[in-house]
What does this fold into?
Amino acid sequence: MGVFIIDTSRSPYAKLRPVSMSDVKLTDNFWSPRLDTLVNVTLPTMFTLLEETSRIDNFRVISGKVKGGFKGILFNDSDVYKWIEATAWALVNRRNDQLIKILSDVVNNVAEAQLPDGYINTYFYHRLGERYRYLRQSHELYCAGHLIQAAIACKRSGLCLRLYDAALRLGNHIVNVFNSSNLIAVDGHPEIEMAMVELYRESRDRRFLEEAVFQVENRGKGVLRNFRMPGSWDAGDEHFIDHKPLKDLREVPTGAHAVRFLYLMSGAADIFMETGDKALWEALSRLWVDVTGTRMYITGGVGSRYEGESIGGPYELPNDRAYSETCAAVANVMWNYRMLLATGDAKYADIMELALYNAALAGISLDGKSYFYVNPLASRGEHRRQPWFDVACCPPNIARLMASLPGYIYSTSSGGVWIHLYVASEAKVNLNGNIVELNVNTDYPWGGEVKVTVNPSKEDEFTVYLRIPGWSRGGKLFINGKEQDLELTPSMYVGVKRAWRNGDELTLRIPMPIELIASHTHVLANTSRVAIKRGPLVYCLEQVDNPGVDVWNIALKSTCHLEARYVKDILNGVVVIEGDAYEVRDQGELYRPINGIKVNLRHIKFRAIPYYAWANRDPGPMMVWVPLIDYYSKFANLI
Amino acid sequence: MGVFIIDTSRSPYAKLRPVSMSDVKLTDNFWSPRLDTLVNVTLPTMFTLLEETSRIDNFRVISGKVKGGFKGILFNDSDVYKWIEATAWALVNRRNDQLIKILSDVVNNVAEAQLPDGYINTYFYHRLGERYRYLRQSHELYCAGHLIQAAIACKRSGLCLRLYDAALRLGNHIVNVFNSSNLIAVDGHPEIEMAMVELYRESRDRRFLEEAVFQVENRGKGVLRNFRMPGSWDAGDEHFIDHKPLKDLREVPTGAHAVRFLYLMSGAADIFMETGDKALWEALSRLWVDVTGTRMYITGGVGSRYEGESIGGPYELPNDRAYSETCAAVANVMWNYRMLLATGDAKYADIMELALYNAALAGISLDGKSYFYVNPLASRGEHRRQPWFDVACCPPNIARLMASLPGYIYSTSSGGVWIHLYVASEAKVNLNGNIVELNVNTDYPWGGEVKVTVNPSKEDEFTVYLRIPGWSRGGKLFINGKEQDLELTPSMYVGVKRAWRNGDELTLRIPMPIELIASHTHVLANTSRVAIKRGPLVYCLEQVDNPGVDVWNIALKSTCHLEARYVKDILNGVVVIEGDAYEVRDQGELYRPINGIKVNLRHIKFRAIPYYAWANRDPGPMMVWVPLIDYYSKFANLI
It folds into this structure.
């Protein structure tokens, strides 16, 4: 057993097997300090907020430790569970006695709130007659799912078993109520699917897997219409993805709640890895093509509409009014990780990396104390991270993702070891009994050179799979210093199969040029605009770096000289992109005939920073997509 | 007395006086057929829908003619009132006995539902204990305001007095309850302000004016927080414009509900014309600058957000996700008409004309049977007019605006007669007892030549003010065929003062070139895009006219040859704009490095039609703002 985020060790339809988080030690300068901050700042302050907002007292009320009723919003239990999960993962490679103590205390409070039949919910405890009657809005199985995931994290990380016992009882209760006792219903917010599959993986009790299948199979038949909570806000069946069964979806439902949709996809991918359901896989595949091909921000964010927090139509990707909820970015990582585990297809790793380094990571401040719920790609400067939210799903979600990062880096398959994310680290991987130490040295995401030293405990033939990122061009591979005559196709894994000996060294050199990225013409928000990308990182122009010119008025030209440079004293150290640009000085009128436009371009210098790092300094305008003056000249001699 | 939409005849702070609708006979080919359709199709079918949806039965329930309770949404009475108002105006110059009979019947049903104390509301009749308790959402004064406006329309058009009697009683009741009986409250949806000022103008009972002032003065103090309807959707104080007093607003509240805001502005403008309140005027002026300078679509539409149907931030003007509610366009016409009456300043007439011919007129189909609630400026073709809506504010609103069109064309002032809108028509205007016949001949909005024959009943000196539209350049004026040596400044009225004799002829020749319009650089939706405008009309590309190329992929070049041509057999006859353009064939990827972009421009021919006429034929994509390939070349030698 190991500390697996997702334990596909015995999943018959998963190509990849997990590597225990406890066997992956980060040695890098990018993620390690962020995880230190997570343990030292984020998780303790988040705990304080959970206390201050009565989220933990809600449990204590049930056990009688505190008097009073339920306080807050009905899904608040899930925030506690996600905090537990985050803390459990975070403590795997970072001991912190105080945090362990807090965790244990929180777990006890939760466990003590479990009813004899296994049910736990601090809101419905006070209205047990309404239990499971309002599943459209009640979030009961959503909360249950997060409890189960938290419990599994606690168990796998070796911190405590008490919550896992509670999870098993809760799981049994759910199995007894749904399906078997003829309550044909699903939860308005998917989450239980992932949790039940994982509970099955942990317990090998097949009823949990069946419950997950039941949830997916019964969704989309409009059953939730019978489970409306009176007076509750309701955005319609499509919002809940209850208008059509998942397997019948030909395209992403425009009105679907982004997080609900991506959680459902994640759960369905988990189910596929256990059942091999072909129709399910086909649905997942075509919906993945639709999301990534028409409805995803360049940051990997998903969700274009404030109304209903919904995904939006094809190519509908506004920048200033992007919703791109942090939870949706986290969910996009989760979904793509599962698709990757199922297939070993690098296209999923590409999206996982993209969402991780950009849309998701932007969700938390560098100091680990404040969060974005909404992640626009253009702002006039009013949009700032907040220490907390009434609906506080995002803070613990980004926390649990970051905490589990070591689990996303490596996998194994029958033939070898896979490296998905290039994070400087030391890993111990068990390949059919051969303990292989991998030593990854890299400056990634700032540089594209990755050195992997392979130290098998015994010399043996196996394959080391290195991911060639989809964004890369012209990468080169060296084995023990010798350049290989290989064309490294982007968005593939290059597998190096050989008899490995202690100290063998693989070097991957991926050029990281600055690239200007254009959009499909139907992305109305990005007409004649380009985004600046380098490696996995999307850049943005922030006002604080560009005094004297409104960054919304900066335009590039494709021939502008651009340079990448590491600056250690801002934003905890980042590679900035600097170069020549133009200021397009506006004449002020909202609308004017083009014949009246006067010459008003001014040559300037500009600086861009990684998108994830914006809004950590003085407030001001920010822009990802920058106008490109000679955009259409790229289209040739007609102009 | 005359048939005035707004009777500023005795308003001390209004510069302009109305001309009776009954003295204005349209002779044109643009509006006349639309008003025929209004009377023959729209108003009868709308009546049937009012019946079918129980909106009239709701009144019959109170008088006991029908058994049952209230059906529908709590503000449904207002739809009946707006239908009455529309019908009353429409019948002024078009007799239709059947419609008169229906109107009289509807009016009787309404009047019979009035309670002894003057209150009328078919929803709260069934819950009188809740009367005025939930003003934040109850729409009680909103409905009352529409009743009053309908009643005044019936009275002025000479159709019936019964509703006016009811309106007076209702007005008295409101005056007695609010303010005087210490109910310090306003209505969540402005409307009563305009109505009360007009009731004052009609009755000269100053208490009604005071009530309007009371409503405006007490708004913005958060008083509505005490009048929440339990379980009702609530978008916050700013939505209701109750977060700050109108006079303190330095800018348009981003979260303000567009229709609520514009109705409040209209009512405030009415108040100003009676009170001359300088602080009120200053607020109106600066908010007008903000709306028209940063938050208005090129169509004159207002409202950029679906969420809360709100106005949105400065320069936030998405095209595909424009909200631009038809009611907001109607309200923009109403507000600007009032600002125009107050000042005689042509800038208000410009916006009035713009909103009328574009955003508002798009709200109704050419056949008069279906309506847009939301008016996007780009569509993939799914957005189509509907015969009705559950929330049916828009259909009768566009109907009453169109029905009252003859009232918007002319005004008088102490010195003469003003022509605001160029609509071929015959008008009789009373200038201090001198009945002046005006005969306006024009092809407007298709052509810019306007001939005005002036026939005073006696020769006299007065001024004829002709509006020089803001969009015009190089207009010429001829008096009795003789060109005048005048520079006609756009967005001004040119006043021709002389001793007028029978048959004197003024000719205005305004060139109507095709213009490509650009936006402020901060309008992210319109980067490198232009809108095609000719005269007062905004154009759009509709798929049905452009076979073989997706109109979302059409781009223009500023040097493209463009031609305007009248085509009589489409869309009831329109001037289309045709010319050369390019197809930008997309390579399909959502994002791609610009270096990978291949040559893919193809020369094509395109056709554009007036925006108001879109979605009257086969469904398909539509686009107002078209990419301009050489957009930045307009910025000179740097490129």
